Amino acid sequence: MGHQALPVFRLEPGVCIAQAMPQYTPPVTLSAPALDVMTDLTQVIAATVHPSTTLRQAEQIMVLRGVRMLFVATDRPAFVGLVTTTDLHGDRQMRITHERNLRFDDLCVADVMTGLSTLDALDFEQARGATVGQVIATLQRCGRNHLLVVEDATPHTPRRVRGVISRAQIERQSGLTITVTPIASSFSEIERALA
Q1: Are 169 and 39 a contacting pair, CB within 8 Å?
Q2: What is the pTM of this model?
Q3: Which is nearest to 124 in space by CA: 168, 173, 161?
Q4: Number of separate helices (H) and strands (E) present in the chain
Q5: DSSP secondary structure string, 107-124?
Q6: Hey, how many other C-beta atoms are within 10 angstroms of the C-beta on 162?
Q7: Which of 37, 57, 132, 137 qualifies as a FRET site for 149, CA 20 to 30 Å off?
């Protein structure tokens, strides 16, 4: 049995496009639950990039997605690190272009990303009981702008990055200015800082 078509009409000049109205949410406080400032990757699609992506392409992806950080994943897909706007335009990429006698356009994400082994993460269950103030203190202690939130394996899912907490997101939601001083956490980071 066929379905009846609906009536259609032609548009006239002056028709506008509906704009989403952001819902008002009161600013978070230092005593608010930490999960209030976590980007939950079960609710938001993670912005990812391949390690071989050029820095210029990665920057375009960040602009299009409205983010300052991308998860770096291989084709398997396997999570291998993070790349941030600071990585794209920081000292590391400038040093690599100079050392290798390359141009910015010759570099790829793998050249400047922060690898998996040097990322800091919180346990999801611990984050569930934490406050925004505790998360800020952790960011400052670690000298990081981002913390990953990792959820243990369940019978239905492997151990996985469940979310990310960023200094910029906390600042947007709280109205606070948070100072984070980068801290080298490995010998390779110390060597890079001294080079």
Answers
A1: yes
A2: 0.77
A3: 161
A4: 8, 8
A5: -BHHHHPEEGGG--EEEH
A6: 22
A7: 57
What does the alpha-carbon distance between residue 156 and residue 107 come to, in Å, rounded to a whole number?
Answer: 39
State the Cα angle at 164 between 158 and 169, rounded to 5°: 165
Task: Domains for the chain: give ranges and CATH numbers.
Answer: 34-194 (3.10.580.10)
Residue 158: both structure tokens together: 């492997």
Q: What is the dihedral of CA 136, 141, 145, 151, to 10 degrees?
A: -80
Cis? peptide before 77, omega within 30° of 0:
yes
Considering only CA atoms, which of 95, 189, 110 is closest in space to residue 142? 189
Residue keyed to tokens 């925004």: 132
What residues does 71 pair with on adjacent strands? Answer: 48, 82
Could you list the beta-strand ranges (E) of 29-123.
Answer: 38-40, 48-49, 69-73, 79-84, 114-115, 121-123
Give per-residue pLDDT as tens, 31-63.
Answer: 999 999 999 999 999 999 999 999 999 999 999
Tell me the HSE value of 32 on the side-chain side, using a 13 A CA sphere.
Answer: 16
| b/e code 115-124 from CB counts within 10 Å (16+ = b) | eeeebeebeb
What are 74's two structure tokens?
């291989």
Contact in structure between 140 and 178 (CB atoms under 8 Å): yes
- Report residue 191 as tokens: 């060597």
